[in-house]
């Protein structure tokens, strides 16, 4: 049984986020965190009765912060804040994203820097553990003052309003779902509404999930590239470690090692290694695969460093400090996350682009070194993989558009009080689409390279690449007359997404 994720003084890890968001792991608030939450709440309750106004405790919000709210209206202030800010629109956001968002907000609540009551944090933990997922809409966050509309939808559910998906995915009113789970709806007290919505948790959650996916996809890209090198009668000499040591980028070295390892023992490569081979250099899309994939790996490593810092952060405004001070700040600004979300979209587009170029070479009879046109069974009658490459090209073109940064845009809001925003949520949403697009592009390269390797028989591929082809053939048939290709592309995507492709080659590769 999976161990519960502990919420306390230690930062969450990326693995923790993945376990809760995708693995439905339970969460527990540690005793140290409970004490910190109680201490911070005591500071807030003292300020609630003080004459001096405190933002979020005894004032309005945003441009309305100049209005002092009398004590008997402060509970209504917090509920009104959540209701009015739950103003999202568009399609529902994915369950894993919402679970990550709720977990990361709870992590900050448990830090002892927000001033919420312990029972509020406990109710949020119980909602996660019951598998209750608030309905969050696509649009509504500018990535500054936090992911306001998405987090407000989650907070509204905690109070028993709005809609949620239950553990079975059924849409039900929040109050009904909480009642079934034995959770008392929260009646918000001073500062709590603001603390529940003032974080960068949605964009951070999407960053963490994308990083996990990209680790897998970059390993897949090395594999499909190695298969394409083999299928196109390319050389493995360019992946030698001493060549890559001349340009010491760690990601490049790793991709080169992987590709060399995946091609080890290839009968196809050995067949044209002799002195009679007149091809001096392979095309860039083959020869430079480690440089492109490696640069993407190094970009992922930078983004991981940013994500880890954010996972150690407590983002709220105002924030309760250790000495009891409650201070306004700008830590809710999403720029650090937005920049790396945008940055990642660039190598995603480029890795897909070079994969599409390798695929196209295998289909072009003038560049494929003996393969039939479009890998067709009966060229002219059959079109083979001609239009699969069109699909790749359409996706790559879309990925280039998605690589345009969102974080350079800013639309002032809240009567110019919030006059510069990060658009980090938008950067995260487009990165998720980009990651899905890369997976499809690699699935098509996998299908094409596997078909080309089959057509090279009786020459035998390397043990690792042969294992990939064999495992794929359990899901997709080998060469033959034209078939409906869309289901085969979908099957290859699922093969990648499930992890089964990399598992299939694991016993034949050391890297």
UniProtKB/TrEMBL annotation:
The modification 2,3-didehydroalanine (Ser) is found at residue 145. Keywords: Cytoplasm, Histidine metabolism, Lyase. Contains an active site 4-methylidene-imidazol-5-one (MIO), which is formed autocatalytically by cyclization and dehydration of residues Cys-Ser-Gly. Coiled coil: none annotated. It is found in: Cytoplasm. GO terms for cellular component: cytoplasm. GO terms for biological process: L-histidine catabolic process to glutamate and formamide; L-histidine catabolic process to glutamate and formate. InterPro entries: Aromatic_Lyase, Fumarase/histidase_N, HutH, L-Aspartase-like, Phe/His_NH3-lyase_AS. Its EC number is 4.3.1.3. There is a cross-link at residues 144-146 (5-imidazolinone (Ala-Gly)). The keyword Cytoplasm applies. Pathway: Amino-acid degradation; L-histidine degradation into L-glutamate; N-formimidoyl-L-glutamate from L-histidine: step 1/3. PROSITE patterns: PAL_HISTIDASE. One of its GO terms (molecular function) is histidine ammonia-lyase activity. It catalyses: L-histidine = trans-urocanate + NH4(+). Belongs to the PAL/histidase family. This is Histidine ammonia-lyase. It comes from Saccharothrix australiensis.
């Amino acid at each position: 049984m999976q161990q519960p994720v502990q919420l306390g003084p230690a930062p969450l890890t990326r693995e923790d986020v993945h376990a809760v968001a995708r693995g439905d792991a339970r969460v527990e608030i540690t005793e140290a965190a409970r004490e910190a939450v109680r201490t911070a709440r005591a500071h807030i309750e003292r300020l609630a009765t003080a004459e001096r106004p405190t933002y979020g405790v005894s004032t309005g919000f945003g441009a309305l912060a100049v209005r002092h709210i009398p004590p008997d209206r402060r509970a209504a202030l917090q509920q009104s804040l959540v209701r009015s800010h739950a103003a999202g629109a568009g399609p529902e956001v994915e369950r894993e994203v919402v679970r990550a968002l709720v977990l990361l907000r709870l992590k900050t609540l448990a830090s002892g820097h927000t001033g919420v009551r312990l029972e509020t944090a406990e109710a949020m933990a119980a909602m996660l553990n019951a598998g209750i997922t608030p309905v969050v809409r696509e649009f509504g966050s500018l990535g500054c003052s936090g992911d306001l509309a998405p987090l407000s939808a989650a907070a509204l559910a905690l109070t028993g309003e709005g809609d949620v998906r239950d553990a079975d995915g059924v849409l039900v009113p929040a109050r009904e779902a909480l009642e079934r789970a034995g959770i008392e709806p929260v009646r918000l007290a001073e500062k709590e509404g603001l603390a529940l919505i003032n974080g960068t948790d949605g964009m951070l959650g999407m960053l963490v999930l994308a990083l996990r996916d990209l680790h897998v996809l970059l390993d897949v890209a090395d594999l499909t590239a190695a298969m394409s090198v083999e299928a196109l009668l390319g050389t493995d000499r360019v992946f030698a470690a001493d060549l890559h040591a001349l340009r010491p980028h760690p990601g490049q070295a790793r991709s080169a090692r992987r590709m060399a390892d995946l091609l080890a023992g290839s009968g196809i490569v050995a067949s044209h290694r002799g002195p009679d081979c007149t091809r001096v250099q392979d095309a860039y899309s083959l020869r430079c695969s480690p440089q492109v994939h490696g640069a993407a790996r190094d970009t992922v490593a930078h983004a991981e460093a940013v994500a880890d810092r954010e996972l150690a952060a407590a983002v709220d405004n105002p924030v309760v400090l250790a000495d009891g001070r409650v201070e306004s700040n700008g830590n809710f600004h999403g720029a650090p996350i937005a920049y790396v979300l945008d940055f990642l979209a660039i190598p995603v587009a480029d890795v897909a682009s070079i994969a599409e170029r390798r695929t196209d070479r295998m289909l072009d009879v003038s560049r494929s070194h003996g393969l039939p046109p479009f890998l067709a069974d009966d060229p002219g009658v059959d079109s083979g993989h001609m239009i699969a490459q069109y699909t790749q090209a359409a996706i790559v073109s879309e990925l280039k558009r998605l690589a345009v940064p969102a974080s350079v845009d800013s639309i002032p809001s809240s009567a110019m009080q919030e006059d510069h925003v990060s658009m980090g949520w938008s950067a995260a949403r487009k990165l998720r689409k980009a990651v899905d697009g890369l997976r499809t592009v690699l699935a098509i390269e996998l299908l094409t390279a596997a078909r080309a390797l089959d057509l090279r028989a009786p020459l035998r591929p390397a043990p690792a690449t042969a294992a990939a082809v064999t495992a794929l053939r359990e899901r997709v048939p080998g060469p033959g007359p034209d078939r409906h290709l869309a289901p085969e592309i979908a099957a290859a995507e699922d093969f990648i997404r499930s992890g089964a492709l990399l598992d299939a080659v694991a016993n034949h590769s050391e890297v």
